[in-house]
Request: fold
Amino acid sequence: MKSWWQVLIVLAVLTAGSSVASLAQSQGSGTVARMVLWRAKPGMTKQFEEGYQRHLEWHRKNHDSWNWYGWNIVSGERFGYFLDGSFFHTWAEMDSPVSPAGDSADSAVNVSPYAEILSVAMYESLPLATNFRPGELSASHVTFSRWEVQPGRAGEFESLLAAASLKSKTRHRGSCFVRSMEHRNTCC
Reply:
């Protein structure tokens, strides 16, 4: 039986390597992230990396204002997977990404033949639990923690988190995101 909130702490140490890409000069000040977890098909890691780079070029050519980052997961149950994401957006920005149809079409040509998408999700950061800032996204190693909270229980969860944060006097170094199950107006 699940408790009122299911804690899914994903502590994956990620390495940026040559795959980190920043597409725009400015970084937003919102709290929402969009992340995609990929697994390269057997024997196709190089093709996946090259296709991913071509796909980032599509974003540049289409004047995507979002910064996109990518990391290879180097520890934990998702070892060997690749995580890309765009961070620090508002929910309104999530509702209007650059050309979703064009993005999907380009990904289908350049990335999908070489890798499988394991998840696509939007998360909301918890400022009480982290000191993670936009400038830290280019770090070579990043730790992500994730919690899933039942609809209607976000306030209770955040109160508990605030109390724990005050007791510890320190915040988790790295990013801390909660998957918001209550926002229903996103396009993806």
Remarks:
- The first strand starts at residue 5 and ends at 6.
